[in-house]
Amino acid sequence: MKDSEVRDYINGMLGANGNSEGMGLKVELHEEDYRQVISQALAKLAPYYNGKRYFITDHDHVDLSDVNLVAVTNVFNVSNSVLLNAQDFAFGGQNIIIYNADFRERYISYTAYMMLYKEYDYLRSQSWRLVGNTLYIHGFQKSTLVEILVRPTVVSDIESNSQYCSWVKDYALALAKEVVGRKRSKYTVEGSPYQLDGDRLISESQSEKANLEAQLIGDIFVI
């Protein structure tokens, strides 16, 4: 998801025609206001959301201090990831043993076994470990694919197809309504048939925030 998508959603719902330039009805939000409401929405979601991310590296150690890391979940050879199944194929749940002439109908041949064992032995030599914010990688060939879990700190940490995209947009909108409402509540229009809707926006914001926060601890969003 992009930052501009959230801004356009806020503007559109507040009457600015969904335009990030704020065309249409005036929306009393400044650049810092947008940053604050989006940041607060992500901070509210963070304890309930682990975003899965992948990156490729050619290095034997990687500094992950620039991401809000939850965990490193796996490391794969980019070109030989299929070999990760060798151990399960050779030893997993099949009672497979070294070639036995009396039971050759039931067990893999000695040649196939040795091939699989060679691959398994190679995979067994591969290792990775996270020390502080540095991931150390050993024994992998060429590029490695790293799978990590992160807490969202920027909008792009939320996958575009995630169910959380709409939640972030709605929560940022509720926060924006409160900001606009408080600004409008500072003014009165004497003798005019029009009334500023600051109080209404604040009330809507409080109700919407409470509903969205309840969703986070409900059945839908429990992680």
Structural write-up:
Helices cover 39% and strands 16% of the residues. It has helices spanning 3-13, 31-45, 86-91, 110-124, 164-184, 198-216; strands spanning 51-57, 61-63, 69-77, 127-131, 134-138, 144-150. A three-stranded antiparallel beta sheet has the order 1-6-3, with no helix packed on it. Strands 2-5-4 form a three-stranded antiparallel beta sheet, with no helix packed on it. The chain starts with a helix and ends in a 7-residue tail after the last helix. It has two domains: 3-49 and 157-216, no CATH class; 51-150, no CATH class. α2 crosses α5 (164-184) and α5 packs antiparallel against α6. With 223 residues, the protein is an alpha+beta fold.
Give me some keywords for this one.
39% helix; 223 residues; elongated; three-stranded antiparallel beta sheet; alpha+beta; 2 domains; 16% strand
